[in-house]
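In this section we walk through a basic example: taking a raw amino acid sequence and producing a predicted 3D structure, encoded as discrete structure tokens. The instruction is simple. Fold the sequence below.
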Amino acid sequence: MATIVKVEIKDEYVTLGQFLKLADIISSGGEAKLFLKGNEVLVNDEKDDRRGRKLYKGDLIKTAGKVYEICR
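The resulting token sequence is shown next.
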């Protein structure tokens, strides 16, 4: 199993687009749409490409060969 990278959020949730920037996967919010079109992203083992998808504490995101966990 891959090492889990913890990504801490301040609010109740973060959108998938915001997460990509927080996790340093993309450098700007404008890149989210292109990244999600060209790369597989799994949220809790389900494929998702909606940059507005809300992510909450405990959600697991798999992309670019890494696993990330949302923490507060």
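Looking at the output, two observations stand out. The first helix runs from residue 16 to 22. The beta strands are 4-8, 13-15, 42-43, 46-47, 54-56, 60-63, 66-71. In the next section we compare this with other chains.
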